[in-house]
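re: the backbone from monday

yeah here it is again, tokenized this time
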């Protein structure tokens, strides 16, 4: 029994060391890297916003199965999944606490 507890303590210590190292390497550069959104991330966000507000994509298609963005077509599964997440947050926390670009 003592041996299992010792392994558990070592595992917890190793996890804490890994988290501390990750924080030391990431937090000083948090404001500079990444520099901003990539174009495809911004397109996904705008399509999600448009479908959430109007049930149409940016091209006017009602509840599309595929979204057109940047000369390609993507499945709308991510958009509908993210919309359900945003709606559940709005129902739980209210409209005043979550803005349109959250």
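seq for it, each position gets an aa:
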């Amino acid at each position: 029994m003592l041996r299992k507890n010792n392994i558990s303590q070592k595992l917890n210590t190793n996890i804490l060391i890994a988290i501390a190292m990750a924080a030391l390497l990431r937090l000083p550069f948090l404001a500079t890297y990444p520099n901003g959104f990539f174009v495809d991330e911004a397109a996904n966000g705008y399509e999600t916003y448009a479908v959430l507000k109007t049930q149409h994509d940016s091209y006017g298609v009602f509840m599309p199965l595929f979204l057109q963005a940047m000369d390609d077509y993507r499945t709308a599964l991510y958009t509908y999944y993210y919309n359900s997440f945003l709606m559940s947050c709005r129902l739980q926390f209210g409209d005043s606490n979550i803005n349109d670009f959250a």
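Residues 39-93 form one domain. The longest helix spans residues 2-26.
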